[in-house]
């Protein structure tokens, strides 16, 4: 069931750059230069996979590039092989503007060998100057320690930069040409669900597709889904999704017959939303050729509230299952599915997914709990990672079940790519989740809300893309940890909120300054009601990705030495890297068009 990709997956192009002088110089460098390219390919293939689990593919230019004609041949080959980002490598001096990659839409990096027999770093500086002068930002990679010319190894610091650049560049390339599918429109006036087509088009190279929620009704009533899959899905759901005790007041509870019907509807909604996003060849066999095509969507969102949920079952089951890495068809790639059609949170999830290949947690950024407030209502003192207070992440709906804390690597709780997840782990995530009949005061049409608590301390990064008139898109990033509270403390705090929704306790890493002065400040600086949470400390990758797309980062708590942006950012000032980021993004404008 992966019709995500129309055409080939984007490849990484590797460009071996050489001094073009024949009769001695070039000949002496051919082998070394090609070996650098091959070692970069081996590194990338060892460490990087596409979100569907396949190993990344690289393309190396047919010859080393010593001049403009060879650069053009390389560009031609790369165009034919769907290259989406390029890395130029060189051990020596070569001719800057004659050899660089001139495609303005392709993220680019140059690794200049730090040797002294031949001056790779001098080429790097000259080529970067040419890039800067021509408005073609490029990432500079220069090892800290001098290597001998016959040393074909890649130093650790260079490896780190090559991989950081490649992860971010692949994310850029993977988004290009795909769609965000809005199912419904604006939910409860949430600005993030006012889908902004110019942003998607100019900054991400993506299309916007829109379907009315009445399409779900049509497909349910006209049975435009695979009936065999529906039967299998309903059976699986009954066996794997435990229904919780109805928490509604007796007079607000739906009848058993209604609730049974709701299970059928929410399972059908899940099939339909997926088919709308990526298509389904089975529909063609059933006579629905047009519906079988889907919308080529890499991310989507469902308005739900209010018109739909005032009458039909809510979208929580559909959202939670699609955002998780398993369903009745087994273990599979998670979909990026935004509740309340908050497309800006959907894009934040997409960034995290493309950088890590993992499921992403969608949540309301609901409450700042200070240590004093927690002590007042529970009598308990917060400690450890939570000592400075907590942010309560909770939303009805789309939280991925992968965030239950039941996935493991080397005995530690994690969120990991689907190909590492075992059947037992998927079952444990499902077991940790209870599906309560939806709160019928919010959701008059019923449905089921997933309830779990993230019972693990895991490194995570919360991010959020916001649109600001006059400025454009800005990204905010907060690295921190999920916190496992003692059960009795959690229970008291949880009982004060929407009991039937999933909870994650988040403690951001503090720096003592600005937005990260304390936990309260992080909450107070958050730019919208939602955040997207990714496993791991991926702030540095998000920063590189944002720079490639020319999206400035308004707040982050990433170590200065991990910040890696195109080298031309240095020319925009070095006192306060944030200001330089804003000026550079403003100057270059969106990757795919004018602001
Ligand atoms: C049920 C409520 O309307 C929630 O959906 C609401 O708290 C939100 O999630 C707002 O983002
Ligand atoms: Mn919400």
TrEMBL record:
Domain L-fucose isomerase C-terminal: 393-556
Cofactor: Mn(2+)
Signal peptide interval: none
Domain L-fucose isomerase N-terminal-1: 10-177
Chief location category: cytoplasm
Residues given in the record as Mn(2+) binding sites: 340, 364, 530
Catalytic activity, as annotated: L-fucose = L-fuculose
Biological or metabolic pathway of the protein: Carbohydrate degradation; L-fucose degradation; L-lactaldehyde and glycerone phosphate from L-fucose: step 1/3
EC number of this enzyme: 5.3.1.25
GO molecular function per UniProt: arabinose isomerase activity; L-fucose isomerase activity; manganese ion binding
Residue numbers spanned by region Disordered: 241-260
Keywords noted in UniProt: Carbohydrate metabolism, Cytoplasm, Fucose metabolism, Isomerase, Manganese, Metal-binding
Root EC class: isomerase
Lineage top rank: taxon: Bacteria
Domain (L-fucose isomerase N-terminal-2): residue spans on this chain: 178-357
Subcellular localization(s) per the UniProt record: Cytoplasm
UniProt function note: Converts the aldose L-fucose into the corresponding ketose L-fuculose.
NCBIfam families the UniProt entry points to: fucI (TIGR01089), PRK10991.1 (NF008220)
Similarity annotation: Belongs to the L-fucose isomerase family.
Name the UniProt record assigns to this protein: L-fucose isomerase
Organism of origin: Paenibacillus abyssi
């Amino acid at each position: 069931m992966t019709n995500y990709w129309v055409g080939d997956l984007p490849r990484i192009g590797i460009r071996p750059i050489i001094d073009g002088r024949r009769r001695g110089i070039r000949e002496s460098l051919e082998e070394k230069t090609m070996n650098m390219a091959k070692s970069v390919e081996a590194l990338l293939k060892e460490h990087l996979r596409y979100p569907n689990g396949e190993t990344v593919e690289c393309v190396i230019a047919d010859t080393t590039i010593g001049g403009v004609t060879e650069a053009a041949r390389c560009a031609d080959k790369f165009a034919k092989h769907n290259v989406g980002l390029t890395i130029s490598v060189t051990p020596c001096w070569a001719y800057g503007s004659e050899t660089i990659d001139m495609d303005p839409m392709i993220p680019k990096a140059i690794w200049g060998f730090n040797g002294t027999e031949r001056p790779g770093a001098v080429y790097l500086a000259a080529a970067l100057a040419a890039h800067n002068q021509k408005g073609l930002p490029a990432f500079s990679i220069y090892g800290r320690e001098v290597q001998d010319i016959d040393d074909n190894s890649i130093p650790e610091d260079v490896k780190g930069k090559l991989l950081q650049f490649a992860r971010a560049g692949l994310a850029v390339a993977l988004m290009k040409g795909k769609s965000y599918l809005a199912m419904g429109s604006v939910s409860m006036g949430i600005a993030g669900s006012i889908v902004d087509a110019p942003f998607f088009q100019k900054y991400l190279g993506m299309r916007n597709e829109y379907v009315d929620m009445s399409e779900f009704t049509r497909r349910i009533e006209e049975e435009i889904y695979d009936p065999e899959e529906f039967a299998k899905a309903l059976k699986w759901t009954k066996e794997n999704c435990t229904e919780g005790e109805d928490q509604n007041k007796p007079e607000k509870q739906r009848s058993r017959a209604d609730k049974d019907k709701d299970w059928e509807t929410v399972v059908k909604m899940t099939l339909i939303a997926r088919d709308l996003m990526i298509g389904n060849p089975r529909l063609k066999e059933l006579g629905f050729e047009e519906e079988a095509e889907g919308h080529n969507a890499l991310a989507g969102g469902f308005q739900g509230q209010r018109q739909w949920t005032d009458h039909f079952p809510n979208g929580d089951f559909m959202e939670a299952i699609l955002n998780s890495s398993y369903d009745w068809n087994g273990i599979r790639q998670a979909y990026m599915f935004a509740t309340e059609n908050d497309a800006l949170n959907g894009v934040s999830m997409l960034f995290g997914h493309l950088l890590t290949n993992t499921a992403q947690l969608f949540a309301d950024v609901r409450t700042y709990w200070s240590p004093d407030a927690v002590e007042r209502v529970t009598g308990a003192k917060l400690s450890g990672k939570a000592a400075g207070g907590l942010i309560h992440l909770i939303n009805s709906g789309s939280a991925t079940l992968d965030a239950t804390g039941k996935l493991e690597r080397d005995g530690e709780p994690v969120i990991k790519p689907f190909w590492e997840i075992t059947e037992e782990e998927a079952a444990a995530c499902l077991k940790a989740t209870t599906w309560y009949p939806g709160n019928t005061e919010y959701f008059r049409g019923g449905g089921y809300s997933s309830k779990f608590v993230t019972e693990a301390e895991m490194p995570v990064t919360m991010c959020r893309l916001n649109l600001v008139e006059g400025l454009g898109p800005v990204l905010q990033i907060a690295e921190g940890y999920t916190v496992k509270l003692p059960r009795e403390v959690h229970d008291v705090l949880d009982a004060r909120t929407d009991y039937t929704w999933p909870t994650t306790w988040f403690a951001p890493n503090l720096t003592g300054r600005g937005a990260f002065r304390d936990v309260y400040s992080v909450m107070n600086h958050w730019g919208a009601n939602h955040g997207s949470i990714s496993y791991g400390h991926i702030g540095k990758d998000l920063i590189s990705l944002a720079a490639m797309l020319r999206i400035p980062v308004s707040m982050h708590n990433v170590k200065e030495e991990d910040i890696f942006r195109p080298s031309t950012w240095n020319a925009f000032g070095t006192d306060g890297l944030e200001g330089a980021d804003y000026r550079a993004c403003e100057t270059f404008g969106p990757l795919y068009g004018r602001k």
